[in-house]
Amino acid sequence: MNTTSHADIPDFLMELEDAFNKAMISNDVEQISRCITDDWILVTPEAGPVPRSRILGVIASGLLTHATMTKVATHACVAGDVAWITGRGQNTGTFNGAPMAADEYITDIYRRVDGQWRCMLTHLTPAHTSQQSAA
């Protein structure tokens, strides 16, 4: 197992994250689907675990859109056919027609499936500003 700091995040993980971000801001369900496993789960503070089908359905309907999405990776680990990467991310878009913006810590867990790395879990945690205290 290899745990890394931000200075030595494996290039392939950064490329996966970049592709995932581009897919999300494309708002194209087919493009997003190529980045995630069939059993992908998104864990949010608002809704808890949300299955792939629900997120893709909301994106396909236009209720959720992303205009920007960035992540600065700080930690990563590769262990055989599983890898994770954690960092701070920001995104903008709309939800139910209203503008939205998020600043959060994001962990993506990838699994190699048939030689291709796919995200199997995305976990979001809101980032606290200096005026907020952590629990």
From TrEMBL:
GO terms for molecular function: isomerase activity. Signal peptide: none annotated. Gene3D superfamilies: 3.10.450.50. InterPro entries: DUF4440, NTF2-like_dom_sf. Residues 13-119 form the DUF4440 domain. It holds the Pfam family DUF4440. The keyword Metal-binding does not apply. Keywords: Isomerase. This is Ketosteroid isomerase homolog.
